Amino acid sequence: MRRREYAFLVAPSVIVMFGLLVIPLVRTVQWSFQQVRYGQPGTFVGLDNYRSALTDPRFASAVVFTVVVTVAVVTVLVVGGYVLAVLVNGLVKVKPLVLGLLLVPYVVPGLIGGTMFGWLFNSNFGGIVNQVIAFFGLPEVLWFTSTWANRGLVAGAVIWGLLPFAMLVILAGLQSVPAELLEAARVDGAGTLRTHWSVIAPSIRGVVGFVTLISIMDVLRLFDQLIPLSPQAVQIGNESLVLYIYNRAFLDGGQQLGLGSAMNVLLIGLIVVMLLPFIRSTAREGRS
Questions:
Q1: What's the topology of domain 20-286?
Q2: Could you tell me which residues come within 8 angstroms of residue 237 by beta carbon, excluding any fewer than 6 positions away?
Q3: Domain ranges of the chain
Q4: Distance of alpha carbon 85 from alpha carbon 104, whole angstroms
Q5: Which residues contact 148 (CB under 8 A, 6 or more apart)?
Q6: What is the pTM of this model?
Q7: pLDDT tens across 255-286, in order?
Q8: What are the φ and ψ backbone dihedral angles of 34, each rounded to 5 degrees?
Q9: Which neighbouring-strand residues pair with 35?
Q10: Burial, 258: exposed, middle or buried (Cβ in 10 Å; 0-12, 13-18, 19+)?
Q11: What angle do CA 160, 165, 171 make, to 5 degrees?
């Protein structure tokens, strides 16, 4: 392919990426060093916005909450996605139907999915989980106002929405494992667990790394599910980093856009730090 043809084909993608990614990123970094109010030019304030963010206990609480939820949810997603993929992979005739049903939570927008998931725990909508708890004579659980119960509710909603993605990608990995490899393991006397641990899991290590990478990015940006499921997120300490940035930057009419931009830059740094090991592992897997 000639250089001119290559440039002609690549140019639209480069222009779109520059317009949608680079320009907003540069503006965010620029605003993070300014005091910016909506509709007004910014005033340079140096590192004041970063100093305000890093000394705010609410910011630290949001970071801890976001990181803990991310680690817990991603662990469940990878393990649960693997187990679910193995079960689905063993199906024959009903596999397309089961796959279609399992993918429903993933295609529903996060805000709507969170609302639907919350109905299971809301007595005003006949919450079936509350009915089961009452049937066994257990005390009522305040899912929407109690700190830890609400954390479990939010984590469950995120897992419910993202588990189909993890399952689908890992299922594709399972189907790519050579049948000769599995047959050799059986001939050598390896049981089911041994085959999964020593043969299948190492064979799809790159796929599992990809699922982990995408899941971390999704959960670190936790926001949609908190709106319907955690109406008192700030008061009970269940405020995610993205929700905190939204509350500080926009709820007062856009008076602290500079502070919000500084927090966004810190969030990008946190995402890079958490993703770096998996990016290196995925790149190494691709080269091999």
A1: MetI-like fold (1.10.3720)
A2: 61, 65, 147
A3: 20-286
A4: 16
A5: none
A6: 0.84
A7: 788 888 999 999 989 888 888 887 777 777 66
A8: -130, 160
A9: 43
A10: buried
A11: 120
